[in-house]
Amino acid sequence: MASASPSPSPHPSDTEASTLPLPLSASVLLENLPKPTAAALATAGALPQAKVTIKLTALPGAPELKSPRFKCSSSNTFSTIVIFVRKKLGVKVGESVFCYVNSTFAPGLDEGVGGLWACFKTGEELV
User: Which residues contact 86 (CB under 8 A, 6 or more apart)?
Assistant: First the structure.
């Protein structure tokens, strides 16, 4: 009668013990950030322009504005544009206004105008 060969023992990295966190003494401590990282962090959050041009295009059935283009600070949020449109159209408190970027999506009211302009501009305008 032949005996079965013993099964190989599992590799230590295959066991649950390998998922344990490393002690702090095994970690690397960086004294300085690498130069590309430091440069990227220095410009992170910087807006490309102080003011951006907004072009408002009315959907069918919606009233047109007298001046469809205006400048807005890039540090403002999208809610600033919605408030501006509500004021210009004379919308009552209970009525809704829907604003879309490039007639495609409605960004959150807390989105930055500068970030929207940088990502979704058409020409040099946020439509």
Answer: 97
pTM listed for this prediction:
0.63
Higher pLDDT, 48 or 89: 89
**Alpha helix positions (H), 76-123:** 78-89, 113-120
Distance CA 12, CA 38 (A): 38
Residue 3 has pLDDT above 80, yes or no: no
Question: 54 in helix, strand or coil?
Answer: strand
CA distances, 45 to each of 11, 48, 73, 120 (Å): 46, 9, 15, 17
53 within 8 A of 125, measured Cβ to Cβ: yes
Query: What pLDDT is recorded for position 81?
Result: 93
Is residue 98 within 8 Å of residue 106, measured between CB atoms? yes
CA–CA dist 104, 81 (Å, integer): 16
